[in-house]
Amino acid sequence: MVPQPAPEWQPVCKICERGTLVRKKVFRMSGPVVFIGFVFLIPSVLGIIASILLFFGVLSTGTSGSTRTKNEVALNMRKAGVPESIIADVLAGNADRSDSQIANQDRTILDAQEKVKSNLAIQVAAGERMLQAGIPNSIIRALSTEGRLSTPGIAGSSEMSEWLDGATPEQREMFQAAKVQFHEPPAESLHAVREMQQAQIPVDVIYDVRMSKDADVQAWMGARHEALQDAQNKLRDNKETSGFALFFGGGFAVAMGIASFVGGLLGWLLVMRKSVLQCSVCSAVVNAS
Ligand SMILES: [Zn+2]
């Protein structure tokens, strides 16, 4: 036998005095109104879900778009030889700081070029004296290149030692003096190299400056300026575009969410139920709470 729950106390109907009043949940509103309530409620719930998804979708699209642009411009600047610290400033939008760092690099390079030129003039004079003393041009050039790069090796080449064997004492003396002079560049040109290193100028550009490859240096400076300008433009455009998309896409999602919520609230009010006592015989209804 299945145990039956103890029957609740059920009051007797005051109207027919025969039936008992049974507790029931009924809609507060009439049938058509409840129908309209459901018509409001169901799309509203879907609308709230859709607006939440849309909102986060817009947010993540905007974020991934700007990340992609940042990676792209960083790569372009890196290729153009822009130092990492300047790239970081450009990405962070510190235009003043990146511009002044680039200007500082330009100034440092121009200074170094001046120093290399004056140093070169001294070497050219020494070279002319050596040429007059009958020292071959190739030997002088090798000595000068070696001095400028501070890389010993060329002077020890077989060509050079062969020539030295056959040189006059006077030529040899001049050669050794020039070697010292070329190998010990003036303190100020060493200083210029240090300044270029501090300004984070790439080693190959420093090499070009020291070798007086002015056209190459100029090209590098131009390409770097262009890459920087391009990066700043792209970042600004991207900021505007994604700001626009976030504003309208996000705004639309929020508006849809609010409308859905209000609609849902209205629908919920229309389909609310209440607790009543209903007579089992005459169906009379008494409010209960
Ligand atoms: Zn009754």
Summarize the structure in short.
With 289 residues, the chain is mainly alpha-helical. The protein has helices spanning 31-79, 84-91, 95-132, 137-149, 158-166, 169-183, 187-198, 203-210, 214-270; strands spanning 21-27, 273-279, 285-287.
Order of helices and strands: EHHHHHHHHHEE
Which stretches are low in confidence, meaning pLDDT under 50 for 5 or more residues running? none
State mean pLDDT (0 to 100 scale). Answer: 84
The strands making up the biggest β-sheet line up spatially as 1-2-3
What is the helix content? over 70%
Report the total helices.
9
CA distance, first residue to last residue: 35 Å
Q: Total strand count, please?
A: 3
Which small compounds were modeled alongside the protein? zinc ion
Strand percentage lies at: 5-15%
- Give the overall shape, derived from the CA principal axes: rod-shaped
Describe, in plain words, how this protein is organized in 3D.
The protein is mostly helical. Among the domains are: 1-28 and 272-289, no CATH class; 82-201, no CATH class. The chain has 9 helices and 3 strands. It has helices spanning 31-79, 84-91, 95-132, 137-149, 158-166, 169-183, 187-198, 203-210, 214-270, and strands spanning 21-27, 273-279, 285-287. It has a 3-stranded antiparallel beta sheet, with no helix packed on it. Helix 3 runs antiparallel to helix 9. The chain is rod-shaped. 19% of the residues are buried. The mean pLDDT is 84. Zinc ion is lined by residues 13, 15-16, 19, 279, 281-282, 284.
